[in-house]
Amino acid sequence: xxxxxxxxxxxxxxxxxxxxxxxxxxxxxxxxxxxxxxxxxxxxxxxxxxxxxxxxxxxxxxxxxxxxxxxxxxxxxxxxxxxxxxxxxxxxxxxxxxxxxxxxxxxxxxxxxxxxxxxxxxxxxxxxxxxxxxxxxxxxxxxxxxxxxxxxxxxxxxxxxxxxxxxxxxx
Length: 171
Known about the structure:
The protein is of the alpha+beta class. It is 49% helix and 18% strand.
C-alpha cells in the first residue's frame, strides 16, 4: 500500500547513512537518466516513432474519452502535448534539485566537470556509475557538502597518476 511505502522511506531517511546515499543517488540520476538531455532524447525518439501513426489515431479516436483518458483532436494538438512533455523534461531537474535542497538542508550547487580519458586508456566512475564517453568531458551538478566518490579506472597497461584541476574559465 502507498502509505506503507511512504512510511518505509520516511523511516529509512532517519538513518544518516541512508539519507546520504539517497541524496547521492538522486543527484546521480538527475545527472544521467533523468537529465533534461536524456529525457528529451527519449521523448523525441518516441515522438518520431509515433508520428506516422497519429493521423490514423486521430481518425479513429480523436476527441473521444474513456475513463481517465482523453484523446487529442488533431495532429497539431498532439504536437502541443509533446511540447508540454519536452518543457517538463527541461524544467523538472531544477525543480527537483531545489526540493532536495530545501528538504535536506543542502548547500549550494556546483558543477563538476571531468575530462574523460580515451576508452582505450580507461574510464571514470562517479559514485560507482560508469560515465558514458559520448563527449570529451562530462558534467554533473552536485550539492556542496554531499558526499561524492569519483574513481579513475585505468585500462589494462595504463596506470592512474593523479587528478588535476583545470584552469578556471576567464581566469
